[in-house]
Amino acid sequence: GLIRREDYSAPAYRILSVDLTFDLDPAKTLVGSKLRITRDAATPAGTPLRLDGEGLSLLRCLGDGESLSFRHEEGGALIIDNPPAAETFTLEIRNTCAPEKNLELSGLYTSGGGFFTQCEAEGFRRITYFLDRPDVMAVYSVTLRADKAKYPVLLSNGNLVEQGSLDNGRHYAKWHDPFPKPAYLFALVAADLVCREQKITSRAGKEHLLQVYVRRGDLGKTEHAMASLIASVAWDEARFGLSLDLERFMIVAVSDFNMGAMENKGLNIFNTKYVLASPATATDADFAGIESVVGHEYFHNWTGNRITCRDWFQLSLKEGLTVYRDQEFSMDMAGSASAAAVQRIGDVKRLREFQFPEDSGPMAHPVRPDSYVEINNFYTTTVYEKGAEVVRMQDTLVGRAGFRRGMDLYFQRHDGQAVTCDDFAQAIADANPDSPLAANLAQFKHWYAQAGTPRLSARTRWDATAGRLRLTLTQSALPSPGQADKQAFVIPVRLGLLARDGRALPLQLDGEAAPAGTERVLVLSATEQSFDFVGLGDAGEAGPVPSLLRGFSAPVVLDDGLDSAERLLLLRHDADAFNRWEAAQRLLQELLLAALPGDGDLPALDEALVEALRAVLREDGLDAAFKELALTPPIESVIAEQVEAVDPQRIHRLREQLRAQLAERLHADWAWAWDAHQLREGYRPDAHQSGCRALANLALQMLVLHAVAHGDEVWPGRAYQRVKDGGCMTERLGALLALVHGGSALAGAALERFHADARGDDLVLDKWFAIQAAATEPLGAPGSVAPRIRALLQHPDFSLKNPNRVRNLISTFCRDNPAAFHRADAGGYVLWADVVLALDAFNPQIAARIARHLERWRVLAEPWRSAAREAVARVAGHPRLSADVREIVGKALDA
Ligand code: ARG
Ligand code: ZN
After folding, report:
1. Sign of CA dihedral 336, 338, 342, 345
2. Taking residues 742-758, what's their average pLDDT?
3. What confidence category does residue 776 fall into, taking pLDDT thresholds of 50, 70 and 90?
4. How much is the average pLDDT of 364-382?
5. Which of 126, 259, 300 to mutate to test ligand 1, by most ligand atoms within 8 A of the CB atom?
6. Does any ligand 1 atom lie closer than 6 A to the CB of residue 121?
7. Which SUPFAM superfamilies is this protein grouped with (predicted)?
8. Cα dist. 644→363, 385, 814 in Å?
9. What is the DSSP string of 500-526?
């Protein structure tokens, strides 16, 4: 059924402490649970007690030692009609569950011969009967018993209290977590693992033990994860004054995992993808992902665990804030202002590629949703990444020091509590009473309540004689599901003004005594507002060019009203790296958009643009990473976002023509870029080296593309050589991509070689699957990718049971390869439906993720639209569908 935010009520009973014992066995695990329960003052004695439960077998249930009568609800919950009347009483439960049959990977499950848990959001109820809601926080003691040879490592949250041997080759460990926590933060691990460990001393002088657990043989790939963890601990102390609060902090890697990682108190459980890395097996992007996710989970210890969510509608309270924190961490780790700007560009790119489409589709929902059927469907890019932007705007509105004051107040007020998004924003505002946030708090909170991406348009009126510029900002918002009318947002607009010679102009608003620097933040709170800048007498006849929304100061779609000449000026001179990148992207995007109607070819790029791009590519002192981002045209799905009826084939064709022109016109420059960015020193995954490799890889792609078009074999030959003997995975993979995306005849042989060299390494095999799923449809022989994906589903290395495999093959195909997925023969759609249904039989969470790839069928032009709709309808019509998938396809088909 539908769960509504407005229906929240406080729990009638709470759990003070819980004592758990596990006799671990893959087929049948015995769980003993002793709960100290207390009745709320407002709850009459004798009120029935309802405990969540799912797929469990109950063996016994005692209240204060007496046996109790009970019944079960349909979904498996346990109802005790006559609980003990005492205000506080003890409930003893014994039940069993079947970890090896648990293919949903929620609750207690087996993977690679070990036991692991995933309890967020509602997995604990699949382990034992409980009040499985985040506002019930208990102190946990846990005893694990298992076969010693098979499961030498026994872990749970908190501190190890005791361990020893038992009869029959079994052993035990007892853990105690002193911090009260909701059930979703419980974890246990029992497996044959090894660990890298490191002792650290905190600023406060306390000793802590950090451990990273992996399977035997993977220890050599844990150095980066450990370094990232150490850096995370130091960063949170330095930036937010937050220290590690446990003696021991553990990370455990597991290969079957539905998400990226999980912040269980003191015992983070990670997808191997975000732990294991070596230069030979992981790309620079993988290294960066590890740093970011290790940081993210660690930062949750304060933003999520010490202060948690009152209910799941408040998910962004912890996720938006923690994404904001991990983004800031990565920016600080990048080591320079320009590398931090590159990091920011990457974050905004992701927001636009994933969150903007979500916000304009059938699953659009506010950062704080109002209702859900299945909470797992709401671990979305809106809750996470847009939520982070909403936190970032609060930072912008109160300033960095003000934000720190706000965070301090938040912890002072709410440490140990389960709270709401309102509590967070209130703390930030209260700590900054004179800020524009405090002045507009109620209105600012529309960001939490209204779905959809607002449009912001900017127009200027220049009075050369008076040296006066009027900037008029207008905002509007389109309707979204369940929200027809929107109220105005509070939009912070960071800006600067440039003279036509590139100078930064002083910013003085009419009525101000003096200019306030060359950059400032305007706050738009009305639907339309004008700002008059004065003292611009030396800006010249044509007047200043505004550089708006610097650093992407608000998650909006900006219509800046600028022409190409003005964009070229920003590309060349803007002091804000983000807006320089933005100018390049818009110039390229507008070419594609202008050519879309009709069926002609992309016109030749004009010389001014080519010259400007060349200047960026060759500019001394500019980060290579920035150059790579600026010279890569927006991806097809971002172009598709801008049009009414999407023709994926046409967009693909035009973008390929754009790539071909860039390869042709900048040929000598690409050859230079390749040479100039070869690294001679040892591998480091830092911003400088990653940037060089990224740009060299782009150059190689362009050179191979050019060579294939001209029948020249030198560059494809070099790329093939790189696949074989590249110095690191980033180089080898870059060369492989150049061959596959360049349509080289060597692509097949290179893929085979890459597979052989993978030697069964799961994360490398994932890449092998992903590359084939992303392979460009050869413009000459279209229709070849979908059949190949179907064949790969049968490959001995493929399994639907492993979420990473599914994501790398299926999501890459459906999401990153629109021209191959959207075909008139509907082959991609049929494949999609087959996979969704097959997955839904055992892992609804992953099935629902895959189901989302076609939710926006409505934006397609014919014949794709009808064919896609039919595939969605076929899934929706399946007789046994999970609530997860039903919610997605139901919304997709709804008017
Ligand atoms: N809290 C985790 C994180 O963001 C994600 C867990 C999501 N789990 C789920 N079943 N939806 O770090
Ligand atoms: Zn998180």
Report:
1. positive
2. 96
3. confident
4. 98
5. 259
6. yes
7. Leukotriene A4 hydrolase N-terminal domain, Metalloproteases ('zincins'), catalytic domain
8. 18, 25, 20
9. TTSPEEP--BTT-SS---S-EEEEE-S
Convert the pLDDT of each residue in 606-632 to its tens digit: 999 999 999 999 999 999 999 999 999
**Which residues on adjacent β-strands are paired with residue 559?**
457
Closest ligand (CA of 379): 1
Q: How far is the CA of 579 from the centre of ligand 1 (A)?
A: 33
- Residues ≥6 apart with Cβ < 8 Å to 711: none
317 lines ligand 1 (CB under 6 A): no
Statement: residue 729 has pLDDT above 90? yes
* Residue type (1 letter), 160: L
Structure tokens at 430: 């209260």
As a whole number of angstroms, the distance between CA 216 and CA 195 comes to 9
771, two tokens: 């590359």
Q: Ligand 1: does its nearest atom lie under 6 Å from the Cβ of 656?
A: no
Q: How far is the CA of 295 from the centre of ligand 2 (A)?
A: 10
The rounded Å distance from CA 261 to ligand 1 centre is 7
Q: Does residue 146 come out as left (phi exceeding 0), alpha (psi in the -120 to 50 range) or beta?
A: beta
Amino acid identity, position 35: L
Ligand 1 atom nearest to CA at 296: 12
The pLDDT tens digits of the residues spanning 116-155 come to 999 999 999 999 999 999 999 999 999 999 999 999 999 9
Residue positions annotated with a catalytic role: 297
CA 73 to CA 700: how far, in whole Å?
61
Instruction: Kindly state the average pLDDT of the residues 514-529.
Output: 97
Q: Average model confidence (pLDDT) for the chain?
A: 97
pLDDT of residue 259: 98
Note the ipTM here: 0.98
3-state helix, strand, coil in the chain (%, to 5): 45, 20, 35
Q: 877: exposed, middle or buried (C-beta count within 10 Å: 0-12, 13-18, 19+)?
A: exposed
Is 33 in contact with 18 (CB distance < 8 Å)?
A: yes
Provide the pLDDT for residue 780: 64
Predicted pLDDT of residue 895: 67
- Which atom of ligand 1 approaches the CA of 297 most closely? 12
**Which one of the ligands is nearest to 374 CA?**
1
AA identity, residue 215? R
Q: Could you report the per-residue pLDDT of 476-493, keeping only the tens digit for each? A: 999 999 999 999 999 999
- Average pLDDT for 421-443: 99
Centre of ligand 1 to C-alpha 231, Å, is 22
263 lines ligand 1 (CB under 6 A): yes
Cis peptide before 673 (omega within 30 of 0): no
Is the predicted pLDDT of residue 779 greater than 70, yes or no?
no
Instruction: Tokens for 709, please give them.
Output: 């078009």
Is this model's pTM higher than 0.80 or not?
yes
User: Does ligand 1 come within 6 angstroms of the Cβ of 120?
Assistant: yes
Question: Rounded CA gap, 820 and 792, in Å?
Answer: 15
Give per-residue pLDDT as tens, 839-880: 999 999 999 999 999 999 999 999 999 999 999 999 999 999
The pLDDT-based confidence of 223 (bands split at 50, 70, 90) is very high
Query: How many whole angstroms separate alpha carbon 592 and alpha carbon 635?
Result: 11
| Sequence letter at residue 529 | Q
User: Which ligand is located closest to the Cα atom of residue 274?
Assistant: 1
54, 105, 119, 262, best to mutate for ligand 1 pocket (most atoms within 8 Å of CB): 262
The β-bridge partners of 93 are 33, 61
In short, whether 319's Cβ falls inside 6 Å of ligand 1 is: yes
Phi first, then psi, for residue 88 (nearest 5°) are: -125, 130
Q: Is the CB of 261 under 6 A from ligand 1?
A: yes
376 lines ligand 1 (CB under 6 A): yes
Distance 321 CA to ligand 2 centre (A): 9
Distance CA 836, CA 750 (A): 31
Q: What is the mean pLDDT of residues 260-287?
A: 99
Q: Is 742:708 a contact under the CB 8 Å cutoff?
A: yes
Q: Quick one: how many helices (H) and strands (E) in the chain?
A: 32, 32
